[in-house]
Design goal:
- The complex is a heterotrimer of chains A (222), B (262) and C (474).
- Chain A is α/β, with parallel strands linked by helices.
- In chain A, 31% of the residues lie in helices and 23% in strands.
- In chain A, a hairpin with a 4-residue loop joins strand 5 (129-131) and strand 6.
- The longest helix of chain B has 17 residues, at 189-205.
- Chain B is of the alpha/beta class and 262 residues long.
- Chain B contains 14 helices and eight strands.
- Chain B has two domains: 9-123, no CATH class; 130-261, Rossmann fold, CATH 3.40.50.11810.
- In chain C, helix 4 packs across helix 13 (246-260), helix 10 packs across helix 11 and helix 16 runs parallel beside helix 20.
- Chain C has a six-stranded parallel beta sheet with strand order 1-10-7-4-2-3, with helices on both faces. Chain C has a four-stranded mixed beta sheet with strand order 8-5-6-9. A two-stranded antiparallel sheet of chain C has the order 11-12.
- Chain C has helices at 8-17, 19-28, 32-41, 46-62, 64-77, 88-101, 113-118, 120-126, 136-143, 160-171, 179-196, 222-228, 246-260, 315-319, 321-326, 337-348, 350-353, 355-358, 365-369, 376-389, 395-408, 411-429, 442-445, 458-473; strands spanning 81-85, 106-109, 130-133, 199-202, 206-208, 213-218, 232-238, 242-243, 268-272, 286-292, 434-435, 450-451.
- With 474 residues, chain C is of the alpha/beta class.
- The longest helix of chain C has 19 residues, at 411-429.
- Classes of the chains: A alpha/beta (222), B alpha/beta (262), C alpha/beta (474).
- Chains in contact: A-C, B-C.
- At the A-C interface, helix 1, helix 2, helix 6, helix 7 and strand 9 of A face helix 2, helix 4, helix 5, helix 9 and helix 11 of C.
- Chain C: Pfam families: Fer4_8, LUD_dom.
- Chain C: Residues 301-331 form the 4Fe-4S ferredoxin-type domain.
- Chain C: It comes from Neptuniibacter caesariensis.
């Protein structure tokens, strides 16, 4: 009933009845074209330029960037960071590339592959892409990478391959489509720096509800 | 840029406030237009631009006044006035008439000929032979309609830069509304007061001794507040300075004040 | 929410005398507007993006029914449900029904202005479901039994001390004046709510027709916890938020954060598409979209259609000198500032909301900063026209306009009126050049002096000079 009323009002306002097949087809064509509008020049750079822009923008959004030369350096780099903050557990995504690593560098720190729970201090995930334009990470929900890892723990550690840094959001959407031919994953997260709020007395504070710290392990693979 | 005839015939849109409060502003406008080579006439049948009715939602009355104004200015190459707000109202006239109403076309035509004075001098007749001097530091308030509707921003500054000895100190938030808003200032006087109080603070912070602007409504509002606050800052319409007509007392001041100061 | 818009003048008077509020508003204008200006300087394409966004929104409105149905199809295809709701009551009822289906006792809420519009919290409470606001600002307001005074910074009217008092009272912990400690306290308290809630409700900034996705844009991450942890995720949103594609959404996202807070990008932009997949380890099992109309569909094809372009960035109120003077609560209902002055009369009636579109100087700053170029001053004037047509305009204004119009339509009489007024005021002013108190003009002279007219009107002087000139020529 409501649906008919709402659509009826809209059509009356547009001075037409239900859209004709031609009108519907035009809308569908427009959708399928996935045409981008204006992509800011700022991100239209060569790969090296995009990597640098990503660094600048992500740092500007208060993300911490740690360079690693190869993925096999990740366990020791993560261990160093976790030890510095005296964390005893790392809740981790179970991507194959992570599981294949030798994690003995963690020593006493436990790496647990599960969803995040209230009280977890640090999590580790990979990311699909980095978007240079605003220093944004793009992640999506997968069986190996539950979404709670991105939000519940106090600190979120993310691996980003330099080869997956793209210029614009549009480039990233194209990657999402290619990697998910059957349709969108349940959740796509675009993350730009750690959680924050200025709701108390207009004073910006980091760490509202999501992670207080966002660490990006930037993997040199290009 | 349009290509005006050698000595264009200009109809002066006096504006109510210049007519009633400050004729010197209208005379200064005439002086500038004549200096720019225009032949100036003052059509007898003009009154108000219609803004009070327009802003109160009375479209029928506004349209009546619009028709009267359109007729009054028939035959003039340009219509020029010392107010971005009133000239801006003339630019709204086409919105008052339906598509097939013959008045719509006439309103469009009027709109295409109507200019605020500093805009006309700068953008239309390319006049900058300002022959005036002003001792002192001024600050310039950008009135809303002129600024946002007509794009008046650089024109008065460009002309003022030709005035000898004049220094312009820009104030903070020069583009923020002063709180006049026509009937707004009497319908919501305490809100208007808050806004004009912010404004006078910025004006005095600029260090200027004279406030200059292009709309008498805003100037009466700000001058009235400056006086009430006891601030020793004068207020003048930009054409008074450009025409070198600053021998009259400033807005809200009297002859004897000048005498006292001297 | 109780409608207090008819008392706008009184609300404003109180707000102007509220020292703490004035301090907060003074601070506020140096925040978002300055950040926005800086962000725009860094993006040369900003103005072109605004044009694109305006045109795209217009295209969407022309095809609104098509895109909404495509959106619905895709939500359903992904296992979700869409509830079409004509009115606020329909929406509240649909949400309560979902809560009953899953036997919900507690519902965590991300920030949603549409839910403020429908009065959802009051409705749920009255029906035995406990809503818990999780946006920090909204949470503070809920504890205080208060309402948002701004659409993206809801507690902008409160200072640190207010929050400190409120938390101390409700959390029963030692008092602190440190914003970081206060935020941590809220984080701890709300963790328990996030984890134990039965339903999570969020708003949506955009709905993507192509995929059936909804997107939330938040800095805190509360919306993500709200929609990820409970078994049921409800999205309450409104019909004008649909966009065709992810690319189209990206255009608006480029404008939204910059126009709102002046950030390059908001921290979390999260898309939700249907419930959790069978192989997912977490996420909600049920996904509902409650699609609210509440008068919007009736705006299509009217002089208020352009308002449907609004993306709720708050730039208009951030830059509005009237909002900056009186704050959001003065407007007396959900949406404050210029966008509220256009929307509110549609939703609660122009008879109740008449002050809102009138309390504007038409300075045009709102239109200047609107990312989708909504002609807000023009639409506020349209509401004044509606008010005038319905004879709702106050008698004093009507008579005033009628009296003035009588003269303005008769040039000779107008001359006389100007001459008499100029003479009268110059006489009252005497030699002082200004008037301290003028009968019937207390609105002016209570606050400022009235500069006196110079004396004779221009028209009289011009006429005299012209005839003298003609005499001389003879």
């Amino acid at each position: 009933m409501s649906k008919a009323d709402i659509l009826g009002n809209i059509r009356r306002g547009l001075k037409r009845g239900e859209a004709t097949p031609a009108q519907k087809a035009a809308a569908t064509r427009r959708i399928n074209a996935h045409k981008a509008t204006i992509i800011p020049k700022r991100s239209q750079l060569d790969q090296a330029g995009q990597i640098q822009l990503f660094r600048d923008m992500a740092s500007g959004a208060a993300a911490e960037i740690i360079d690693i030369e190869s993925l096999s350096d990740l366990p020791s780099a993560a261990a160093e960071w976790l030890n510095k903050h005296d964390f005893k557990t790392l809740v981790s995504a179970s991507d194959q590339c992570l599981n294949e690593l030798d994690w003995s560098a963690l020593g006493d720190i436990k790496r647990e592959q599960r969803i995040a729970q209230s009280g977890d201090l640090a999590s580790l995930t990979t990311s699909m892409a980095g978007i240079a334009e605003t220093g944004t990470l793009m992640l999506y929900s997968r069986p190996e990478s539950p979404t709670t890892l991105n939000f519940l723990p106090d600190c979120h550690l993310v691996v980003l391959r330099e080869s997956t840094i793209v210029g614009s959001y549009e480039d990233a959407w194209q990657m999402v489509r290619e990697q998910n031919p059957d349709g969108m994953p349940r959740t796509v997260n675009m993350i730009t720096g750690p959680s924050r709020s200025a709701d108390i007395g207009q004073k910006l504070q980091m760490g509202a509800h999501g992670p207080c710290v966002l660490v990006i392990f930037l993997l040199k693979d290009v | 840029m349009p290509n005006p005839t050698q000595n264009p015939k200009v109809g002066l849109f006096v504006t109510c406030l210049a007519d009633m409060f400050r004729p010197s502003v209208a005379f200064a406008t005439v002086k500038l237009l004549e200096a720019a080579g225009c032949k100036v006439e003052v059509p007898e049948n003009q009154t108000c631009c219609g803004q009070p009715a327009y802003n109160s939602g009375d479209k029928a009355t506004t349209a009546d006044i619009a028709r009267q104004t359109i007729e009054a200015f028939d035959g003039y190459e340009y219509i020029v006035g010392p107010s971005g707000s009133c000239i801006g109202m003339l630019h709204y006239y086409p919105d008052l008439f339906e598509e097939n109403d013959p008045w719509k076309k006439r309103a469009e035509d009027l709109k295409s000929r109507a200019y605020e004075i500093t805009q006309f001098l700068t953008d239309i007749v390319d006049f900058d032979r300002i022959n005036a001097a002003f001792e002192g530091t001024i600050t310039y308030h950008d009135s809303c309609s002129g600024l946002r509707q007509l794009g008046v921003k650089q024109q008065p500054r460009k002309l003022l830069s030709k005035v000898d000895n004049l220094t312009l100190n820009e104030m903070e938030e020069a583009e923020t509304c002063c709180g006049f808003g026509g009937t707004f200032c009497v319908k919501y006087p305490d809100i208007s007061n808050r806004m004009v109080s912010n404004k006078t603070q910025y004006i005095s912070d600029s260090g200027a001794t004279t406030l200059v602007g292009g709309d008498l409504g805003c100037l009466l509002n700000m001058a009235g507040k400056l006086k009430r606050e006891g601030k020793q800052i004068q207020a003048r319409h930009v054409v008074e300075i450009l025409a070198g007509m600053t021998d009259t007392p400033a807005i809200g001041e009297a002859e004897y004040e000048l005498a006292n100061e001297l | 929410m109780q409608i207090k818009s008819p008392q706008f003048k009184e609300n404003a008077r109180i707000a102007l005398h509220n020292v703490e509020l004035q301090e907060a508003l003074g601070q506020f204008k140096h925040g978002f507007p300055v950040n926005r200006a800086n962000a725009i300087k860094r993006l040369p394409e900003f103005e072109d993006l605004r044009d694109e966004a305006r045109d795209l929104k217009n295209h969407i409105i022309q095809n609104l029914d098509i895109y909404l149905e495509q959106f619905e199809d895709n939500v359903v295809k992904n296992g979700g449900h869409v509830h079409w709701c004509s009115t606020a009551e329909d929406a509240n009822k649909a949400i309560l029904d979902i809560c009953k289906q899953v036997d919900a006792k507690t519902i965590t809420k991300g920030k949603s202005m549409v839910s403020e519009e429908t009065g959802l919290n009051e409705y749920l409470e009255a029906n035995g479901v406990r809503p818990v606001e999780t946006d920090l600002g909204e949470y503070i307001l809920q504890l205080r039994d208060d309402h948002p005074s701004h659409i993206i910074a809801p507690a902008i009217h409160l200072n640190v001390n207010d929050v400190s008092e409120t938390f101390h009272e409700h959390h029963k912990r030692p008092k602190t004046g440190d914003p970081q400690a206060l935020m941590k306290e809220a984080r701890e308290v709300l963790r328990k709510e996030f984890v134990s809630a039965d339903v999570g409700l969020t708003g949506a900034n955009f709905l993507v027709a192509e995929t059936g996705s909804t997107i939330i844009v938040t800095n805190e991450g509360n919306g993500d916890l709200t929609q990820t942890l409970p078994k049921t995720h409800i999205v309450i949103t409104s019909i004008e938020k649909v966009v065709p594609t992810l690319e189209d959404m990206s255009l608006f996202l480029r404008l939204l954060a910059r126009s709102a807070t002046g950030q390059e990008f908001t921290v979390y932009n999260t898309l939700s598409t249907g419930p959790k997949r069978d192989t997912d380890q977490d996420g909600p099992e049920n996904f509902h979209v409650v699609l609210v109309d509440n008068g919007r569909s009736e705006m299509v094809g009217t002089e208020f259609q352009d308002m449907l372009r609004c993306i709720r960035c708050s730039s208009c109120m951030n830059h509005c000198p009237v909002y900056g003077a009186v704050g959001g609560h003065s407007y007396g209902w959900v949406y404050p500032g210029p966008m509220g002055s256009v929307l509110t009369p549609k939703m609660i009636g122009i008879d109740k909301a008449a002050h809102l579109p009138n309390a504007s100087t038409s300075c045009g700053k709102c239109e200047e900063v609107c990312p989708v170029r909504i002609p807000l001053p023009k639409m506020m004037r349209h509401w004044r026209e509606k008010e005038f047509e319905k004879h709702l305009t106050p008698k004093t204004v009507r008579f005033g306009i009628a009296g003035w119009a009588f003269f303005a339509k008769r040039p000779a009489l107008y001359r006389w009126l100007a001459r008499s007024s100029a003479w009268f005021m110059s006489t009252v002013a005497g030699k002082k050049g200004r008037i301290k108190k003028l009968p019937l003009a207390g609105g002016w002279t209570d606050w400022r002096d009235m500069p006196a007219p110079q004396g004779k009107t221009f028209m009289d002087q011009w006429k005299a000079a012209s005839s003298a000139k003609q005499q001389a020529e003879k």
